[in-house]
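Minutes, project check-in
Item: structure for the 93-residue chain
Input as provided by the requester:
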Amino acid sequence: MQSCHVKKNDEVIVLAGSDKGKRGRIISVSPKKQRVIVEGARMIKRHTRKSQTHPQGAIVEREGTIHISNVMKVENYDARAAKRAGAEEKAEG
């Protein structure tokens, strides 16, 4: 089994795609497929059949999967941004 740089309940930021810049918590990780589901990112509309919970059927909005390479832990992202800001101040001064 391959190891991942993120785990369930980690706070991450999306680095690429239409949801670039969004922050959210990881709901699930699929290491074999190398994909994660991030809370509030890549919302898709799922058409559901008639059931007891939805007697008429429904269009449910839920999170889609994102490739693992397109997310980064928020702590690492913020540290990288702070380091970059410090380097810019040195260059100016």
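Outcome recorded: The first strand starts at residue 11 and ends at 14.
No further action items on this chain.
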